[in-house]
């Protein structure tokens, strides 16, 4: 009877299967690492974009906050500076320009208001536009119009975002 030893063939097949499994494991690990790197890179760029958007939103909030507290403090100081016998009938703001109209008991009160506004940190370029005498129920009054520019001290100077830049 002829005997054939098939053992070396089995060992070589097992070696070949083991080698294939190691190669497959290496491909899976390398693929996983490459996939993980690509995912992390995309998340990193997404994070950078979101941080830039957040920074822009915070700058807008800072500008809004400065715009909210500045006028309140300016009006409070205006109320403190206004002489007792002077009444403001209209206050209009367009940009940084303010226009005051009002009535006073005499021209001295108007002069006192102008002097106080010039000494204030909130107002600059105070200018008298017109005055006119008026009689109201036996009282002599002075109608006036002033103009000034408003300045909000301590407000953060934040450059507006440039269009097209992200």
Automatic annotation (TrEMBL):
TM spans (from-to): 21-40
Domain of life (superkingdom): Bacteria
Entry-linked PANTHER family: DNA UTILIZATION PROTEIN HOFN (PTHR40278)
Keyword entries, A-Z: Membrane, Transmembrane, Transmembrane helix
Designated name of the protein: Fimbrial assembly family protein
Protein species of origin: Anaeromyxobacter dehalogenans (strain ATCC BAA-258 / DSM 21875 / 2CP-1)
């Amino acid at each position: 009877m002829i005997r054939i030893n098939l053992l070396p063939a089995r060992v070589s097949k097992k070696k070949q299967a083991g080698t294939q499994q190691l190669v497959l494991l290496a491909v899976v690990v390398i693929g996983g690492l490459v996939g993980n790197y690509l995912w992390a890179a995309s998340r990193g760029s997404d994070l950078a974009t979101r941080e830039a958007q957040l920074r822009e939103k915070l700058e807008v909030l800072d500008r809004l906050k400065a715009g909210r507290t500045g006028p309140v403090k300016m009006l409070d100081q205006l109320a403190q500076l206004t002489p007792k016998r002077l009444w403001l009938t209209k206050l209009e703001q367009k940009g940084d320009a303010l226009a005051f109209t009002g009535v006073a008991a005499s021209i001295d009160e108007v002069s006192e208001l102008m002097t106080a506004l010039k000494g204030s940190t909130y107002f600059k370029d105070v200018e008298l536009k017109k005055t006119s005498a008026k009689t109201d129920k036996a009282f002599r009054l002075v109608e006036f119009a002033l103009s000034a520019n408003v300045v909000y001290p301590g407000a953060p100077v934040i450059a507006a975002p440039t269009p097209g830049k992200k």
